[in-house]
Amino acid sequence: MNTFKKVVLLATLVFAAQLAKAQHLFRGRVIDSATRQPIEYAMVTTGHQSASTNRSGNFQLSLSSDSAMLTISYMGYKTKMIIAKSSDSRMLIVLNRCTIDLKEVVISPSLNSNSFHTISALDLNLRPVNSSQDLMRLVPGLFIAQHMGGGKAEQIFIRGFDADHGTDLNVSVDGMPVNMVSHIHGQGYADLHFLIPETVATYDFGKGPYYTGYGDLATAGYLSYTTKDALEKSMISIEGGQFNTFRVAGVVDLLSGKAKQNGENAYIAGEYNYTDGPFELAEHYKRFNLFGKYSKQLGANNKLSISASTFSTSWIPSGEIPERAVFGGTTAIDDDGNAIKIPAAANTINRFGTIDSAQNGKSTRINAIAKLSSDLKNNWSMENELYYTHYTFQLHVNTTFFADDPDNGDEKFQKEKRDMFGYNGKLTKRSYFGNGSLTSTIGIGDRMDRTYGTLYSDVTQQYQFLDAISQGDVTENNLNAYVDETLQTGKWLFNAGARIDYLHFNFNDTAQNKAVISPKINIQYTANDEVQLYLKVGKGFHSNDARAVIGNKGLETLPAAYGADLGLNWKPIPHLYLNAALWYLYLQQEFVYTDDGTIEPGGKTRREGVDFSARYQLAKWLFADLNVNLAKPRLVGAEKGEDYLALAPTFTSTGGLDFKFDNGINGGISYRYMHKRPGNENYSLTADGYYVTDLKVNYTRKRYEVGLSVENLFNTKWNEFEAEEETQLRNETAPVDQMSFTPGTPFYAKLRVAVFF
Q1: Contact predicate 703/695, CB 8 Å
Q2: Which 3 state secondary structure label does DSSP give 117?
Q3: Residues 59 and 131 placed together within one structural domain of the fold
Q4: Total domain count, the chain
Q5: How far is 191 from 179, CA to CA, in rounded Å?
Q6: Is 68 in the same domain as 174?
Q7: Which of 283, 490, 572, 643 has the largest count of CB atoms under 10 Å?
Q8: Inter-residue contact 605 to 159 (CB < 8 Å)
Q9: Collapsed DSSP state (helix, strand, coil) of residue 234
């Protein structure tokens, strides 16, 4: 018998021995005692074997004995121990909420390669949030900025990317895309303001292009929010603060406790926001949100959820202003690319002043989602989802003032109306053998976007039309499919998958088609309950704007991104959790969004860096967190010194202390730090860094809560956004190339009162 046959025989005997030892199956479902909703990622352990619950709260263990002592735990819930027999029907295990204890966190090989779940669950439970901006800042290393008023989608910075408004970060809510492809204000425009923070149950994020369920725009990573299916209690809150700020919000349960026991839930949520902001020109920012959700357990194995929401906002931004309009002796760039010093402009304004008061914006979004989740026989499960969005956007913007048109000014008008339809489907099979499992998933999806009357034009400050820069209807369809296999055996977890995306672009009745295949491989090794190593390798992509694709201006249609992460999850002591990763990402083509409504090719780029996160429980009531993110973003092929990526973050950090006392006092103090970074490709201009501290303190009782939040506690003078602009003020005879900025919020206090019922 040759060596190969001996190895095959030995492997067969070992596999058969495992099967012989593990013939007794233990099945169950873990739910929350208050909401009766399933708990995902709860750990079920016995001896040296463990399993985690899936999205439906289900788990299965295969053991050699027909009885076992099972320990069921999840952070924020009281651990439960039960004696179970394999002959029992599927167990229903109910967990009760309790104070958070990091000691309960278990590093396990069965967590489906979700390296960041512990961090996201802990941060969402500890840190009070009352805006979509707060929700986004929970992601370690993710920074946001506003530069055209609070109504626009935030500028996103993550992993060495100035990701514009979402070009390199895939954002979704309940499986529905938030990013708008071929948007008039930037590819992948992700306006999350329709999401009411009080409705969020969980959020999930992943960095890099390693996840088969996420395709277009998931190069730096993805960010996914899930809304609550059921409320623990109803709530009405009123908030007021400086700068004529006002917010009223509420979530109200519509059904009785008996309906909940039968698996039926319905609630409605709403919010209204108003603020004038810190600017001399009152922002008059208004936002109205309304959200409703109904879910119903259909028999033992099917669950239906239906949700709908509407959102509208309007605002008057002060916009970006050039440094010389405020400061003297600032830096600019001459025609030869050299940095020069220039004096302050005449009639200077203060940091919160306005140059063009004609700027304004409006936006609306209506969403509808229907989802059916089914647990089928023989460990099969299926999800089917349909979604629809109707969206409108319009913006008057002027960032260059009189540089292009000294007579009429450089006012631009952006407008679009859009319908988006989509379907997501997923079929999953979990197979068990010995102390391992194989999870097989097939997914398909389709998304159709159609815009009507998309327009980018020059207008006067009186909004009179001058000429169209870009105009026409866009139709874009993304059909996708993926396969994903996850093998967990002993201490190892192997995940391999691939997805194919087929995109159809049509602009003004001219069409183009393109397909891309994206393979992914993830390997995870769990040495013990304290140490876990992982390697992630994958290919992703971000699509181009349909107008640029049809125009064929030297742009790739679906430029690829290739990445790798080498990471560690570690619990050196019971109350300390660490995550660290070395990473690399190469982009076939960077996209640069310009002020004339087009996308320019930015060339090939590479990024490499280090991510580090720590969560430490110093006492029963006190928690500390720290995130440090280093990145080296560079243009590939450019000369050294000319290869910087403008505005790309190189060093960021966030952290803080959160406290929760038994007497109801809770809150935290946190900081965010952005290091200075290049303002252009040769670093002759600089985007200044900043360090800002926020404070939140609440007094929470069973029936009410009183809270105080302070942004920029130490009244730091900082710039929220900066960018190189070639601007000309009314009194100037020629344009000047220098940094323009939007000032960051000064000391800003708000008081909140909430009632629970």
Answers
A1: no
A2: helix
A3: no
A4: 2
A5: 7
A6: no
A7: 283
A8: no
A9: coil
Domain membership of residue 626 (yes or no) is yes
Q: In 3-state terms, what secondary structure has residue 147?
A: coil
Torsion of CA 18, 22, 23, 25, to 10 degrees: -140
The whole-number pLDDT of residue 594 equals 55
DSSP alpha helix (H) spans, 131-241:
132-137
Q: Do 757 and 246 meet the contact criterion of CB atoms below 8 Å apart? A: no
The dihedrals phi and psi of 60, each to the nearest 5 degrees, come to: -150, 135
Confidence check: pLDDT of 3 > 60? no
Looking at the fold, whether 132 and 49 belong to one and the same domain comes out as: no
Contacts of 199 (CB under 8 A, 6+ apart): 227, 228, 251, 269, 291, 293
Specify the 3-state DSSP secondary structure of 549: helix
Looking up residue 58, the CATH number of its domain turns out to be: 2.60.40.1120
H or E element at residue 19: helix 3-21
Here the CATH number for the domain that contains residue 473 is: 2.40.170.20
- Would the pLDDT of 347 be above 70? no
- In a domain? residue 268: yes
Pick from 609, 591, 588, 611: which is nearest to 599 by CA? 591
Q: Which residues of 244-281 are buried (b: 16+ CB within 10 A; e: fewer)?
A: ebebebbbebeeeeeebeebbbbbbbbbebbbebbbeb
Residue at 348: amino acid letter: T
Pairing of strands 380-397, 748-756: unpaired
pLDDT reading at 16 higher than 50 = no
Per the structure, the complete domain to which residue 50 belongs is given by: 21-98
pLDDT in tens, 291-310: 999 999 998 899 999 999 99
Q: Which residues contact 549 (CB under 8 A, 6 or more apart)?
A: 505, 507, 512, 514, 555, 557
Residue 529: per-residue pLDDT: 85
Q: What are residue 659's DSSP bridge partners?
A: 622, 667
Looking at the structure, do residues 90 and 134 belong to the same domain, yes or no? no
Q: Dihedral of CA 10/16/20/26: which sign?
A: positive
Provide the b/e sequence for 72-85 (b: ≥16 CB within 10 Å). Answer: bbbbbbeebeeebe
**Per-residue pLDDT at 286 exceeds 50:** yes
- One-letter amino acid of 428: T
Q: Which of 309, 299, 279 is nearest to 150 (CA)?
A: 279
pLDDT of residue 168 exceeding 60, the answer is yes
- Please tell me whether residue 146 adopts helix, strand or coil conformation: coil
pLDDT digits (tens, 9 = 90+) for 442-457: 999 999 999 998 999 9
CB atoms within 10 A of CB 188: 29
Q: What Rg do the C-alpha atoms of the chain give, in angstroms?
A: 27
- How many whole angstroms separate alpha carbon 236 and alpha carbon 250? 4
476 is written with which tokens? 């874009």
> Rounded to whole angstroms, how far apart are CA atoms 524 and 487?
10
**Do both 166 and 31 map to the same domain?**
no
Is the domain of 460 the same as that of 524?
yes
Within a domain: 107: no
Per-residue pLDDT averaged across 588-592, rounded? 81
CB–CB of 627/140 below 8 Å? yes
Whether the pLDDT of residue 682 is over 60: the answer is yes
Cα–Cα distance between 391 and 364 in angstroms, integer?
Answer: 6
50 with 183, same domain?
no
Please check whether residues 88 and 122 belong to one and the same domain.
no
Tell which of 98, 130, 148 closes a domain. 98
Nearest CA-CA partner of 106 in 615, 574, 488: 574
Any idea what the Cα angle at residue 590 is, between residues 589 and 594, rounded to 5°? Answer: 130
Q: What's the mean pLDDT when you consider all of the chain?
A: 90
**Could you give the CA distance from residue 646 to residue 247 in angstroms, rounded to a whole number?**
36
* pTM for this predicted structure: 0.92
What's the CA gap between 359 and 522, in Å, rounded? 47
Using DSSP, state whether 693 is helix, strand or coil: strand
Answer whether 329's CB lies under 8 Å from 344's CB.
Answer: yes
Q: Kindly state the DSSP code that residue 547 receives in the 8-state scheme.
A: H
Which helix (H) or strand (E) covers residue 238, if one does? strand 235-241
Q: Which pair of structure tokens corresponds to residue 138?
A: 């929970």
Per-residue tokens: 727: 């601007």
**Residue 613 within a domain:** yes
The two tokens of residue 323 are 């440094």
